[in-house]
Amino acid sequence: MSVLDEIVEGVRADLAVRRKRVPEAVLRERAAAAGPPVDCVELLRAGPGPALIAEVKRASPSKGALARIGAPADLAAEYTAGGAAAVSVLTEQRCFGGSLDDLDAVRARVTAPVLRKDFVVGAYQLWEARAHGADLALLMVSVLAQPLLADLVALATEIGLTPLVEAHDEAEAERAVAAGARVVGINARNLRTLEVHRQTFARVAPHLPDGIVKVAESGVRGPFDVAGYATSGADAVLVGEALVRSPDPRATVAAFLAASRPAVVGG
Ligand SMILES: O=C(O)c1ccccc1NCC(=O)[C@H](O)[C@H](O)COP(=O)(O)O
C-alpha cells in the first residue's frame, strides 16, 4: 500500500466517526449560516507577481514533526501581515497533526481566504469545510475517480467554495480541467514516493489552458524557488515547511514575495 493509500484509509476511518457525531444535515445548516465565501479565482491571479498561499502544517509523512504550532491563528496572522494572499490549513490529523479546530481558529482570526487542505473523498468534507468557514477546498485528482471529481468540483462551486484541484502530471492536469477546475495546483511532491521534483510545475503548467489559475505546490526552500515558480508562470505558490520552520514567518513571507515581484524601475 502506498503512503497516499494509507493516508486515505485513515481519513475514511476518521470520517466515519465524524459522520456519526455530526450528520451532514447539520453541516448544511452551519454552512448556510457561515459568512459569505470569497471567490478566490481573481484574487489568486491579481498579480503583479504570484500570490502566496501560506500553510499551517504541523507535521508531514515525509518529514515527521515540523513545528510546534501552539496558536495556529497567530501564525496565520503573521502570514497575512507578511502579505500572504490566503492561508492553507491542513486538517488531516493522523499524519499532519491538523484538525478542524485549527481551521476554526484561523478562520476566526484572518480575513484572507482560507483553504481547507485535506484528502477529500466525498461531499461530506466539502460541507464540513464550508461549515467551518473555508473559502477554498483541495480536491486531489489522484484520490478521486473522474465522475466523483467532477461532481465534487460542481458541488464545491455551488456551495461557495473555490476548488483547488491538484494534479501531479499532464494526465492529471487534463482530468482537472475536464472536471471543471478553474484553479489547478501542480504538486511537485510525488505522493507515492514522497520525492520532490520542482521542475514538475514547469513541465505540466504549459498543458493547462489560458485562464486557468496555476498554483505551484510544494518544495519551496527559499526565495529562489518562489522566483523559479514565478518564472515558470505560476499565478500562486503554496508553501508549508519553509514557513512553519521559519523563526520569523512574517518576514519570510515578505521575502518570498519580494523575490518573485517584477522589479519596479525608478521606484
Ligand atoms: O508533505 C508531505 O510529506 C505530504 C505527503 C503526502 C501527501 C501530502 C503531503 N503534503 C501536502 C502538501 O501538498 C504540502 O503540504 C504543500 O504543498 C506544502 O509543501 P511544502 O512547502 O513542501 O511543505
Automatic annotation (TrEMBL):
Coiled coil: none annotated. CDD domains: IGPS. Pathway: Amino-acid biosynthesis; L-tryptophan biosynthesis; L-tryptophan from chorismate: step 4/5. It is an enzyme of class 4 (lyase). Its EC number is 4.1.1.48. It catalyses: 1-(2-carboxyphenylamino)-1-deoxy-D-ribulose 5-phosphate + H(+) = (1S,2R)-1-C-(indol-3-yl)glycerol 3-phosphate + CO2 + H2O. Keywords: Amino-acid biosynthesis, Aromatic amino acid biosynthesis, Decarboxylase, Lyase, Tryptophan biosynthesis. Residues 4-254 form the Indole-3-glycerol phosphate synthase domain. InterPro entries: Aldolase_TIM (IPR013785), Indole-3-glycerol_P_synth (IPR045186), Indole-3-glycerol_P_synth_dom (IPR013798), Indole-3-GlycerolPSynthase_CS (IPR001468), RibuloseP-bd_barrel (IPR011060). Belongs to the TrpC family. NCBIfam families: PRK00278.1-1. PANTHER family: INDOLE-3-GLYCEROL-PHOSPHATE SYNTHASE (PTHR22854:SF2), TRYPTOPHAN BIOSYNTHESIS PROTEIN (PTHR22854). This is Indole-3-glycerol phosphate synthase. It comes from Streptomyces catenulae.
